[in-house]
Amino acid sequence: MERATSGAQVRVFIRDESDVVVARRRARELASQQRFSEAEAEALATAVTEIARNIVVHAGGGEILFGQAVDGPRRGVVVIARDAGPGIPDIEQAMQDGFSTKHGLGFGLPGARRLVDEFGIESKTGAGTTVTLRKWAAAER
Ligand SMILES: Nc1ncnc2c1ncn2[C@@H]1O[C@H](COP(=O)(O)OP(=O)(O)OP(=O)(O)O)[C@@H](O)[C@H]1O
Ligand SMILES: [Mg+2]
What we know:
single chain, about 140 residues, alpha+beta, Heat Shock Protein 90, five-stranded antiparallel β-sheet, 4 helices, 5 strands, globular, binds magnesium ion
């Protein structure tokens, strides 16, 4: 299946909690442009919030790119979050409910995965982490 990402990309630099709020707002804006339902928009915004917060807490900074996703008649949002932090040595472990290296609840990554349609994570110890999210509007509205 061919998937083109088109439309203007928006970049949000992530350094602290106020940037997390900006990223959340951007997610909601894109979602509304793509005619997501309220529930879909909230799911995307929540996933983006968790990924953005992880950049602040675990990587100390990074950036998030937002774009439109197009696949035939389907409309969606693609989110690429990347940092040059310490990376994640064991991704399978990090994706488990309740795993945290910082006394968190450990539900950020697995929760985000459940809230979107496509979830990808790449990480290299000492080099950083990239998380890619895609979510589609359920129906044409
Ligand atoms: N961007 C990142 N850079 C480095 N490590 C990360 C990053 N994101 C997540 N991790 C690692 O993966 C673990 C699991 O992340 P997850 O978001 O699920 O839990 P948490 O952030 O520890 O707690 P919670 O999100 O529930 O408050 C983290 O504890 C951390 O070790
Ligand atoms: Mg987290």
